Every structure is written in structure tokens, then in C-alpha cells.
Amino acid sequence: MQKKAISVDGSKLYGPYTPGVKAGGVIWLSGQIDVDNGDDVRSQTAGALAKIDALLEAAGVNREAVCFAQVLLDDINDFAAMNEVYGAWVENMKIKPARAAFEAGALPAGAKVEIVVQAIESNNE
Q1: Beta-sheet strands, E only, within 1-125
Q2: Number of domains forming the structure of the chain
Q3: Distance CA 118, CA 125 (A)
């Protein structure tokens, strides 16, 4: 099985990793943060989801391909605010992804939220 790297020009990396990897029809995206989009969880969630959209597009799919999302919060008390933005992002999806959300303090670069997704290249059931 051959792995293919997925990236978007100009993306800021916070360590030695690839923004996304595609292999065998599965797409794994590294956790996305966006501390440059604002200081609050709503704007950082919107920024992280925009980065995910761009990486999915670079992989040749859209958000409908997402099967699982993992949301890491610096403070679980930000759950409702994050969920409001995330809910709008998945609102029109035919099948919303499975999801886990939990507090994981000390996120990279002082981020308030980090979002990880896994997707499939095609849905030929």
C-alpha cells in the first residue's frame, strides 16, 4: 500500500508531522489548530475547521467523507461554544461523523481547540 502526503501550501506546522496522509482509501488528518484566527474557542474552532476543509479538498474529497472527528479542548467549559461552531459545520451533512470531545489541557501553541478527523476516499458500499 502506498502512502500519499496531503498538505496545503503555507500551512503552519507545529512539529515533525505531515498534515494529512492518504492510504488505501483512508484519509487521516493531523490535529488542526488555528491560534492566528482569534483568542476565543469559537474563532479557533472555525479556523481549524477551515483548515480541515482545505486539507480534505487537497485529498480530493469534501467534509461528507469524514467518518470520525476528535475534538480536544483546552477547557471542557468551552464545549458548548465549540459545539455551536462544529454543529454548523456538520449541519448539512447527510451522515454526520462519529465524534469524541474531551479536555486535553496544554494544547500546542496555546490553542483552545484542536480537531482531528479521519475520512474515506469514496463511499462505494
Answers
A1: 4-6, 20-23, 26-32, 66-73, 98-103, 113-120
A2: 1
A3: 18
Buried b (16+ CB within 10 A) or exposed e, 74-96: beeebbebbeebbeebbeeeeee
Work out whether strand 20-23 and strand 26-32 pair parallel, antiparallel, or are unpaired.
antiparallel
Total-model pTM: 0.94
Is residue 9 included in any domain, yes or no?
no
Percentage of the chain modeled with pLDDT above 90: 89
Question: What pLDDT, on the 0 to 100 scale, is given for residue 14?
Answer: 87
| Domain CATH for 62 | 3.30.1330.40
Domain that holds residue 108: 21-120
How far is the first Cα of the chain from the last one, in angstroms, to the nearest whole number? 21
d(CA 34, CA 82): 13
Q: Is residue 7 part of a domain?
A: no
pLDDT single digits (tens) 53-104: 999 999 999 999 999 999 999 999 999 999 999 999 999 999 999 999 999 9
